[in-house]
Amino acid sequence: MIAAKCFRIPSAAFGPDHQRGVATLIVALLLLGIISAMTLFSLSYGMQDRRAIDDEMAARLAQEAAQTGLDQGLQFFRAHLREAATDWLSPSGPKQQWERCMATDLSMPCGAVAAAVRTNYLRHAGALDMRDVFVDAAGAATQQLIVKMGDHDVRYDIYALLCLVDTQHPQQQCLDAAPDHIGPYAITLISYGTVASGDKAAKSVERHSIARETIAPHGASSHSAGIALAVVPGSWSDSDRVDADRNYVEN
Amino acid sequence: MQTATMLKIDMDARSRTRGSSLLDQLTAVVVLSVGLLGLAGLQGRVQSMAANAENQTLALTLAQSQIERLRGLADLPGGVGYEKIVERTDTVKMIGGQRLDTPFSLRIDVARYQLQPSAQADRGRYLAVDDDAPLQPGSPEFKRVEVTLAWTSKTGVPRSVSLPALISRGTF
Predict the structure, then answer these.
(1) Is residue B14 part of a domain?
(2) Which of B33, B114, B126, B161 to mutate to test the interface with A (most CBs of A within 10 A)?
């Protein structure tokens, strides 16, 4: 009897009474683990949601940046309307700025024109340099009037195409040689907007958008009513339609 | 005597066991409480982030629609609408007949630029002019507009979204 009681002393210390406490702790830790996993899952979902929203915002800002570039380009041509179809066109003249698109040129902006009529278009050499007419708040010449949208840095490059409208052969869209006398003409502006997406800690991804508009300052629109210009007004931000060399080719 | 000693030892062991069980349970409660409090805080932050993201998207949508409205105004013939693009403030409480949980304060800042003669440039330069400067027919000009939507988050933090744009007068 005594031996039995003596034997129970150590066993009681690790017996069912004590085990109940440890079990509670284990159950509590298990519960905590399950709730932690659920919360982390929810947190991860929330973060993904946040990233998707940031990405969408960046895409929309890229679209706004492209549109802003287009508006600035329009103002640039308003300031240069007189020489745009005269001095800039004069072959071998000191101020010549339009050059004919090559058939194989897929760079901006010639690559945006359908291959069949590409050589009928003239491109403004490179992206427009607009520093001669725009100044920033401090009075310094600037290429971009808007460099920031919200917390995002924005960039836009503006390209221009000139079409000397071929009223005799609408299928050609534009004359394939510069005439002595300038008739109706149309200038197509292509603005390429870029916005960096993602916070500083995360991997930064750039979002792009293109906006385009054709302007017909000298009554070209009345002559070109039956001409389907290869580059049409409009803007969109579907990055799938912007290929690697930054052009959208009409099908 | 020996039996009494054994019984005492047995009782001491039982009481120690009960004490230990209570301590374990208290520890479990404390660990669980601290963990749950931390997780609740985290969950609160996630919800706050989601609400903020939703408001940010809504603010950007509102800013874009305001800019589109102003572009539409500028396209009205004769510069009538263009002249109506002026600075203003407002409060947006409803969209499409639905009351917003968070009201937005709207501010539109406008700066006007005109092509003016300049010694540094052949064609002149776009320089800022006063709002009440007369329109010069044929002279290029545009307005730099900045639409700002501000709101206060549920945690009381002021937030805002600004969208700048250039708006031209009339069609080309």
Answers:
(1) no
(2) B126
Give, in order, the Cα–Cα distances in Å from B120 to each of A81, B124, B142, B144.
19, 8, 20, 22
Q: Where are the domains of chain A?
A: 2-42, 45-241
Residue B154 maps to a domain: yes
Q: Is B100 inside any structural domain? A: yes
- A139, A131 contact by CB (below 8 A): no
Give the model's pLDDT for residue B171.
Answer: 56
Confidence check: pLDDT of B24 > 80? no
Q: Measuring CA to CA, which residue among B154, B128, B93, B66 is closest to residue A139? A: B128
Q: Which of A2, A8, A24, A214 is best to mutate for the B interface (most B CBs within 10 A)?
A: A24
* Closest C-alpha to B28, from B17, B36, B40, B38: B36
**What's the number of domains chain B is made of?**
1
In chain A, % of residues over pLDDT 90: 16
What percent of chain B has pLDDT above 90?
32
Chain A neighbors of B24, CB-CB under 8 A: 21-22, 24-25
Average pLDDT of the segment spanning A101-122:
87
DSSP labels, A72-105: HHHHHHHHTHHHHTTTTTSTT-TT--EEEPPTT-
Give the model's confidence band at A83: pLDDT under 50 very low, under 70 low, under 90 confident, else very high: confident
Helix (H) or strand (E) holding A205: strand A205-215
- Quick check: A64 and B53 CB within 8 A? no
Per residue in A181-224, pLDDT tens? 667 788 888 999 999 865 554 556 788 888 888 877 654 444 43
Residue B86 has pLDDT above 90, yes or no: yes
Q: Cβ B166–A8 below 8 Å, yes or no?
A: no
Predicted pLDDT at A240: 30
- Read off the pLDDT band of B148 (50, 70, 90): very high
> Is A57 close to B36, i.e. CB distance below 8 A?
no
Q: Are B131 and B86 in contact (CB under 8 A)?
A: yes
What is the average pLDDT across A143-164?
A: 90
Would the CB atoms of A145 and B165 count as touching at under 8 Å? no
Return the H-helix or E-strand segment holding B55: helix B2-74
B37 interaction partners in chain A (CB closer than 8 Å): none
Its ipTM equals 0.76
Q: Is B2 a domain residue?
A: no
User: Are the beta carbons of A28 and B165 separated by less than 8 Å?
Assistant: no
Domain range for B136 is 51-168
